[in-house]
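chain below, 425 aa
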Amino acid sequence: MKIVLLLMFTIASLNCQAQTTSSPSSLTLNVARIEALNSNPEFKRSKITLEEYPFKKDSMLSAHLPKFSLSTNHYFYNRFQYIRFGASNMPATYPYSTLSLDASFLLFDGFGIISNYKSTIIEEDASKLKHRRLQVQIEREIELRFYQALAAKQLAEVANMNILSLQDHLKEAKNRERIGVGTNYEVLRVEVQLEDAKSEKLASDDQIETSRLKLAQIMGLENDSRILIGELPIPDLNFLSEININKSRSDIEAQRRIIDQTRQAIITANSGWYPRISLIANNQWYNNRDRSYSTDQFDRSHAIGINATWNFFEGGDTNAKSALAALKVIEQENILQTMLLQNSYDLIFWKKRYKLAYSQYHARLRSISKAEESVRLAKVGIRNGTRTNSELLDAELDLFRARANLIKSKLDAIEASFNLKLLKE
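prediction:
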């Protein structure tokens, strides 16, 4: 008996585990934010971009570090030049084997490398600011997509309740027609409304799928079927008092860094007017006696000097690069000005949209209260014989419509708050 009970308990535990494993887990807004920052491919690409800058700076500075190179030559066959001495020719002496050690150190290049290094530092700062802005945008977009998916689910529930109510009314209308109390007109009227409700339900289901796909996309997933846990926030006018344009916002500061970078590009371009001066050294071991590798046959030569190159005419390339960099500065300054002007417009526009959504939300709250009272009075009237089923149907349709509109007004406020928060953060 104990063995049988033990087997039954084991089977029940396995079934319970299987049900737990197969049931979809829940998804909250905070979990969605965390997963998005860990899985979003654009955010990960931005992280990798930041990791590249230390190597870029090392590459820039390497030009001002000493350079050493080792090279060797050995000729298996050669026919060298002849030097003429009167009526006789004498073969020129060239090494058959050489081992050379060369060194060079750049002393001056017109500050072009230093300017490029500073430009890379500015570019790194701009990328960090853009990365920070991208994080804010992803977190806010997760919030928007999460609430859109949640609202789509609630609208589908309202649509389903409307269908169930209309199906009950259709049965009642058909029963009334069958016993001769109602008419075919009432049946047809309910059927038309039921078809419209089913279409709205299909649209709601499609919106659920679309919004969930958008949420999964920003989270870096192909699909996600977890149950959403949360409530739509209620519009609050106090929220607007906290909103203003942050002119030190990360994306605005990033644009200012880009302007500084383009100004630095002018200095880099003008470095082409200056000479390049380098310290050079060479040490060579050579064998010009025979083709052997014996160290006894090798002699040594060495030299230390300075090299200067001044490209005083290059076909106008330096002028062109400098002019292009100057025009780039003006272009980037206009981009910054456009951003600031757009922010001012967006602040006014989305504040109005939020106020409108707030007003509609409270208006629809009152509509729901009145519609619920209308439904109650219609039901009382039917029992007393002073109201008809058509009047009850109209009252219920008004109630479902008001509930759906309430959800839409919340969603409108969420969209407006999304854009307003992006202006602030």
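The chain has eight helices and eight strands. Residues 67-107+276-309 form one domain.
thats it, cya
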